[in-house]
Design goal:
heterodimer, A: 249 residues, alpha/beta, Rossmann fold, 2 domains, five-stranded parallel beta sheet, 10 helices, globular, B: 351 residues, alpha+beta, eight-stranded mixed beta sheet, four-stranded antiparallel beta sheet, 12 helices, 14 strands
Chain lengths: 249, 351
């Protein structure tokens, strides 16, 4: 059997998730031993129109991006979205909180805002435009999780992607709950898989991996009451990675 | 077997000599990252780090017999596999009675039916130094669960006779006896010391009671017999995050998940098991994407049934909640307290 051809494409993002793949370091040799990488702008100059697996980084923020992602989808057998920008829209969705994008552009780019390459539209996650087969969550993605998902696919088996909250990993790490410090930690409603990195480093969970499939919003509201906090305070913490998504709405 | 008395200095050098020996020594230490007094079991570098006056640790010492994640075997795809058994010797210092009872229960569970070599090998290589509780934690209810004192499972039991100035140490196994013999300056405990120890233990039987169960633990099984359709499950589970913190902090939760992780060559890999929790949404998800406990309330109910009814049938009626209170503190929406749930049932049902 010939090795599956993999192409990696980027859209609106910081390219940090691709960098995480580069950061596999020695493991990269294993990766390119197992698959045939045919296009990857950040790491090589070759390009290709023929591939089996498309790995997509970044969110869809311009009409021309929509055309490009549809074209990629039509060529790929499997499409994987990697990183918060691609899986949920992530930080890029902050601009969706404003009604008038012209004003946003002016505020960001000042006099240059009318330049044609700065055209902009409301941010979409990749699955708001095309079908996504698998998601590798996080800002940035976890190298180990990326590797294990790719290996699962190569074996033809469904990858294990956690659908439980960050608290699971946080407790296993023996952290003191950030709520005990009076912080609004998003851990109880955010998908695990990161190893609870932020709480383990004494920060609250910022929610970069997106909500679990069925977050208990009622519980969140109750908890805010219990701690003498307001729902608006909770929402203000959810906006960074969760703007215009599920319970943040 | 002997009962010794160790003053502060003798105790300190006893612990330091353990650390200097070729065995790994873990004990209760203050959690450095935490602002308040929070404690965790970890490797001891010197006797001064040991905090036997701790109230409760963030997670129980079960992690030394059943680690958060462990490799069970390495395999070749369609080929041979090789068992992985951890044979490291360990001295575990400062296990409270309720945690000791939880370990005793797990020992029974992992050695019955399918004997679990991975767990039991670790367990048999651990020398346990238990200690009576000096400071009650915020949510302890060991008095209600009859777990405030422990009589077996440990190798040595320590009792602090007052502010860490003097300890009574009783060895009840050969392993414990040999270890205690290394405290060469220890004296034999006299009747007065043993009476003091009894008084401390008797007091703990009453005073570790931040929550009070309104029935005997032995009555829980018949209480639950009649409670399957009670509204409390839905009432409480309404605000459940399904985060499993009540499982991950529980000394008697032992469920695990097993995954085969293949290496990049796709030819060999490792089989790993990790802690799982029955409150997690996918816990009961099986082949074909069928989930037999899809609803939060059924998962919430399951945990309380495990503790009060299902596990007791496997271990001679012992209730599988030891009253450590960790789940009470770990539950952000504050619904996990088993005493609150059982007492709520008792309002409506006579066991």
């Amino acid at each position: 059997m010939s090795k599956p051809r993999v192409a990696i494409f980027d859209f609106a993002c910081c390219e940090g998730c691709q960098l995480q793949i580069v950061n596999l370091e020695e493991e990269i040799l294993d990766l390119i031993g197992a698959v045939d990488v045919v296009e990857w702008r950040e790491a090589m100059s070759e390009q290709s129109e023929e591939y089996d697996i498309a790995i997509i980084e970044g969110s869809i923020t311009r009409p021309e991006d929509e055309e490009r992602i549809k074209d990629i989808r039509s060529k790929a057998k499997v499409l994987i979205a990697i990183g918060a920008c691609a899986t949920t829209g992530g930080l890029n969705k902050l601009k969706n909180n404003f009604d008038d994008l012209e004003e946003v552009k002016k505020c960001v780019y000042s006099d240059a805002s009318t330049m044609p390459h700065l055209e902009t539209a409301m941010t979409k996650a990749v699955d708001e435009v095309v079908t996504v087969d698998y998601k590798v969550h996080g800002c940035p993605i976890e190298k180990a999780e990326f590797g294990s998902i790719i290996r699962s696919l190569l074996l033809g088996k469904a990858p294990e992607i956690p659908d439980y909250p960050v608290c699971v990993e946080c407790k296993k790490n023996e952290n003191v709950c950030r709520w005990e410090y009076g912080e609004i930690c998003l851990g109880p409603i955010i998908r695990a898989g990161c190893g609870a990195k932020c709480p383990t480093a004494s920060y609250r969970c910022f929610g970069c991996r997106g909500y679990v499939d069925d977050p208990n919003v009622n519980a969140a509201v109750d908890v805010m009451d219990k701690y003498g906090l307001t729902v608006d305070q909770l929402k203000s913490k959810m906006v960074l990675f969760g703007s215009k998504q599920g319970p943040t709405l | 077997m002997s009962i010794k008395k160790l003053n502060k200095d003798v105790f300190k050098s006893f612990v330091d000599s353990m650390i200097a020996s070729d065995q790994s020594v873990v004990g209760v230490k203050e959690k450095v990252q935490a602002k308040g007094n929070k404690f965790a079991f970890g490797p001891l570098e010197n006797a001064d780090q040991l905090r036997l006056d701790y109230d409760v640790t963030l997670i129980p010492p079960k992690k030394y017999m059943l680690p958060q994640t462990e490799t069970l075997l390495t395999y070749e795809v369609k080929g041979e596999s090789k068992q992985h058994v951890d044979e490291q010797k360990l001295i575990l210092v400062g296990v409270h009675p309720y945690d000791m009872i939880a370990i005793n229960q797990m020992d029974e569970l992992f050695s019955q039916d399918e004997y679990d070599t991975h767990y039991m090998t670790r367990r048999n290589n651990i020398t346990v130094i238990a200690c009576d509780v000096v400071n009650a934690s915020e949510n302890i209810f060991a008095s209600s669960m009859e777990t405030a004192v422990v009589e077996k499972g440990f190798d040595i039991l320590l009792t602090d006779l007052g502010k860490g100035k003097e300890y009574v140490a009783e060895a009840i196994t050969e392993k414990g006896e040999a270890l205690l013999a290394t405290a060469v300056d220890a004296t034999d405990a006299d009747d007065k010391d043993i009476a003091k120890r009894s008084a401390i233990q008797e007091a703990n039987k009453k005073d570790l009671d931040k929550h009070t169960l309104n029935c005997k633990p032995s009555e829980l099984s018949s209480l639950l017999e009649q409670a399957y359709e009670h509204p409390v499950w839905e009432e409480k589970a309404k605000t459940c995050f399904s985060c499993g913190s009540c499982n991950t902090t529980c000394p008697t939760c032992y469920c695990f998940d097993v995954q085969d992780l293949v290496n990049w060559n796709l030819k060999d890999g490792q089989r790993e098991r990790s802690w799982d929790g029955c409150l997690l949404k996918d816990f009961a998800n099986v082949a074909g994407d069928h989930n037999f406990r899809k609803q939060k309330e059924s998962r919430f109910r399951h945990r309380l049934y495990r503790k009060g009814k299902y596990v007791p049938t496997k271990i001679g009626g012992q209730v599988a909640c030891v009253g450590c209170g960790r789940c009470v503190g770990a539950c952000v929406p504050d619904i996990a307290n088993p005493v609150a749930v059982y007492n709520r049932l008792l309002e409506d049902i006579k066991p």
